[in-house]
Amino acid sequence: MDTLLLDRSTWDLLLDAEGNIAVASGSYAIGQDIASAVRVFLGECYYNTAAGLPYMQNILGRGQAVSVFESQVVEAALGVPGCADARCVVSGIGPDRRLTGVILYTTTEGETGSVNL
Q: What are the pLDDT digits (tens) for 16-35?
């Protein structure tokens, strides 16, 4: 399944060589969609308010266990079409309070990939 290609640093749309909106495909598209799914706050998607992680309700400013967050990330990743398996590994929280880690995934085609949290 194809998806709009997003810039890795700004998460904004990119243009292809002909000036059209760029499209990603294959396992890269699935990885990008997983990263997008994890960035969505619960209730944020206008047409699907059930999508997203409960950042405001259970994550930000709360004493939630890392394993619970990891399972929520995996659940969001498995909701992405083409994702057959996923694993979240949180490596830590930096001095700037930025969470670091990786989501490892396997597509239904058997390809593997990873995206940073």
A: 999 999 999 999 999 999 99
